[in-house]
Amino acid sequence: MSRAWNAWSWETDPDSVRRDVAVAHERFTDSGRLSSRVRSVVGDSWRRSARHGVDPDRTLPRLEVTGPALDDQRDAHPLAATMPLLRRLLLEGAPGPQILAVGDVSGRLLWVEGDSGLRTRAEDMHFMAGANWHERSAGTNAPGVALALDHEVQVFASEHFSRGVQHWSCSAAPLHDPDTGGLLGVLDLTGGDHLASPQALALVRAAAAAAEMEIRARRLSGLLPTPRDPRAPARFRVLGRDQGLLEVDGRSVELSTRHSEILLLLTRHPRGLTGDALGVLLNERDASPVTIRAEMSRMRRLLGNDLLASRPYRLLRPVRTDLDEVREHLGKGDYRQAVNVYEGHVLPRSEAPGVVEERDELQAEVCEVLATHADPRTLLVWSEQPEWREDPRVLDAALRATDPGSPRHATLRVRLRRSGS
Predict the structure, then answer these.
(1) CA distance 278 to 312
(2) Residues 201 and 61 occupy one common structural domain
(3) Which of 8 and 120 is assigned the larger pLDDT?
(4) pLDDT by residue (tens digit) across 43-84?
(5) Which of 321, 109, 350 is nearest to 233 (CA)?
(6) What sign does the dihedral 43-47-50-54 (CA atoms) show?
(7) What does the pLDDT read at residue 310?
(8) Element (H, E) at 120
(9) Domain check: are 203 and 309 in the same one?
(10) Which residues fall within 8 angstroms of residue 407, CB to CB, at 6 or more apart?
(11) Both 352 and 382 in a single domain?
(12) Are 164 and 276 within one domain?
């Protein structure tokens, strides 16, 4: 995944990151100057936290609701239906003590569950149900930043703005309505350093996708009310395709490479993008706002005015991608189906920076989850997919799961050697 959102990579020493950022935090709170050692997503959040008036030494999140009022809010929230699934995915059989928290759009935590010892300690900093952990209320923290940016993110130790939180690390992802695309709340794992690892963010992202799929399944079965927008979500396929295929209102439209890039990026940013922001994600040099406006006008003529909006550029109705489907299968543990849906890399010939990031993130997530959890047969099937046949991560995982005496083991060993690993 992109290092913009991950706290550190596997080859990084977390203790070094902690020390460097702690020094940078002292400098920032003393002088307002930011060090280049601080990730931009964290530095920007520190600035916003300061503008919101968060005191790094004194501010505690507000405890906004308790007792029966809290129970009523839980019962009425659509995320209540996802809690049994999230407990199974993130608490049962967890590799170490951790806290699962789920909050609403405002940042108010509705559920805080998990290791009792950790929860007792967390209550000292008001990390508890009913408290508001939005960035405006608590400063830089993973659920707060995830809500502010509508993107999964990690916050590690001294990256927290409030010093009282700097003994903790967390990974969080926003939760969306699977039919309307609207923001429903946030999912967070909080605890020790291991929850700032790349694997932790991949797990949270997959669990968020599974939770959204659970809401849709319950709606289809009549257990939850359907969303107000009666139109079925459009489906957009970009895996293994140089030109995306959009299926909407009973018709299929193959888009140009540039329009495919734009539509994919808009599905990743439900709140929308300015022309400048979209231009940077498409091409740092050539995609000017004027060029973007012209492309969006052509897309509206092709797709209709009920799909795309301006100021900012955004989608007016849900568009599901095959990326979402892969992540949902990973989140539910249906690893064989995830391999089947993954028909190739994301828009493989695209060089747009935002698309490259999406491509790399999905590849890393698939590798992380399958290599850790998939059964040997699925790993072998995975290693035979054309886009993965020469990937050393895949070959190594399949090799470790194969009987050393089998012919397949020898074949995999030769392919791994040829890959240069």
Answers:
(1) 10
(2) yes
(3) 120
(4) 999 999 999 899 999 889 989 999 998 999 999 899 999 999
(5) 321
(6) negative
(7) 80
(8) helix 116-123
(9) no
(10) none
(11) no
(12) no
Query: Which amino acid does the sequence have at 207?
Result: A
The position carrying tokens 């997503």 is 41
Q: What's the first-to-final CA gap in the chain, in angstroms?
A: 21
Q: Which residues of 338-366 are buried (b: 16+ CB within 10 A; e: fewer)?
A: bbebbbbbbbeebebebbebbbebbbbbb
Q: Residue 103: inside a domain, yes or no?
A: yes
Sequence-ordered strand ranges (E) for 79-219:
98-104, 109-114, 153-156, 169-176, 183-191
Of 220, 241, 265, which residue is a domain's last?
220
1 has a pLDDT exceeding 60: no
Q: Tokens 């022309």 map to which residue?
A: 275
- H/E stretch holding 44: helix 40-51
Indicate whether 4 belongs to any domain: no
Based on the fold, state whether residues 256 and 344 are members of the same structural domain.
yes
Domain finish residue from 357, 389, 411: 357
Tokens standing for 321? Answer: 């991608």
Q: Between 2 and 389, name the one with better pLDDT.
A: 389
Residue linked to tokens 């080859």: 11
Q: Is 24 helix (H, G, I), strand (E, B) or coil?
A: helix
Tokens 């209320």 locate to 137
Q: Which residue has the higher pLDDT, 315 or 111?
A: 111
User: Which structural domain, as residue segments, surrounds residue 322?
Assistant: 231-357
Burial class (CB in 10 A: 0-12, 13-18, 19+), 213: buried
Backbone phi, psi, residue 224, to 5°: -130, 150
Mean pLDDT, the chain, whole residue set: 90
